[in-house]
Design brief:
The protein has about 260 residues and is α/β, with parallel strands linked by helices. It starts with a helix and ends with a strand. The protein is about 40% helix and about 10% strand. Helix 7 packs antiparallel against helix 8 and helix 7 packs parallel to helix 9. Strands 4-3-2-5-1-6 form a six-stranded mixed β-sheet, with helices on both faces.
Length: about 260
């Protein structure tokens, strides 16, 4: 593994809630050219979920390669509960056991880990780990500030606090676009500066957009309000994500790998 990562770089981009069927339909429609290119050159398929089929155990499974019955993180999110009852994941159960720990410590490759879902607080890695809190209050943390060398860390990393209503759904959408671009720019600058053997970044905003915009974009939804200012928002956001993927594709050298994953 060490020899492999010395010869090539691996970029993994995680998109929370990136629905396979919707992505496939937009690829077939010709609206996601970069994802279409990756599908042609590599492989594009749905991943079997875990039980319970929720973001928290799913992402921890992707981090560790372990089933929830083995990694022990079974929490799920009940959005009807007050914040004080939201899940607080104990990262000590998988701290040091993630794929970036193994790549960094066992294979000796430098890693850059940006905004991994629920992997907070950060811990020491062979490189740098930047993470924000999810479903809790807290500050964004950087395991080794020297590694970011002055690159501004986006304040939008971590959890989502705002819950938009109909009157402010357009500003919410525009703010989410801005947050996503800010995070992508940060990841790209960090990758270019450090040139790690393994780079991993999660974007939560894919999930955020669909949760709040679905009723505005799907005429078959019983709560669809009719033609509105964000009725194409989900489609346009997926096109936007495709452009971000294209930006990372341009960073690849021959032999490098780019992998996309979602819960």
């Amino acid at each position: 593994m060490t020899e492999t990562l010395q010869k090539r770089k691996v970029i993994v981009l995680g998109f929370d809630g990136m629905d396979y069927d919707l992505t496939k339909a937009l690829i077939e429609k010709g609206d996601l050219p970069n994802l279409a290119a990756l599908a042609r050159q590599g492989h594009f398929a749905p991943l079997q979920s875990v039980f319970p089929p929720d973001s928290i155990p799913s992402w921890i499974t992707m981090f560790t390669g372990l089933d929830p019955s083995d990694h022990g993180v079974l929490d799920h999110v009940n959005y009807l509960l007050p914040e004080k009852d939201s899940p607080k994941v104990d990262t000590s159960v998988f701290h040091g056991k993630t794929l970036w720990d193994r790549i960094g410590n066992e294979a000796g490759a430098e890693v850059c880990i940006v905004n991994p879902y629920m992997a907070y607080p950060v811990w020491p890695v062979n490189g740098v780990m930047i993470s924000g809190p999810v479903f809790m209050k807290g500050d964004i943390q950087v395991s080794d500030p020297a590694r970011i060398n002055g690159i501004p860390v986006p304040k939008s990393m971590g959890g989502i606090d705002d819950l938009p209503g109909r009157k402010d759904i357009k500003p919410f959408y525009e703010r989410t676009l801005s947050d996503t671009q800010e995070q992508a720019d940060f990841g790209l600058r960090l990758f270019r500066q450090n040139q790690p053997g393994f780079f991993f970044q999660t974007f939560y905003t894919t999930d955020r957009i669909q949760h709040h915009l679905w009723r505005y974009c799907n005429p078959s939804d019983p709560t669809y309000p009719g033609p509105n200012e964000v009725e194409h928002g989900i489609h346009d956001f997926f096109v936007y994500i495709d452009q971000i993927v294209g930006s990372f594709m341009k960073e690849l050298a021959p032999g490098d790998l780019l992998l996309l994953m979602s819960d």
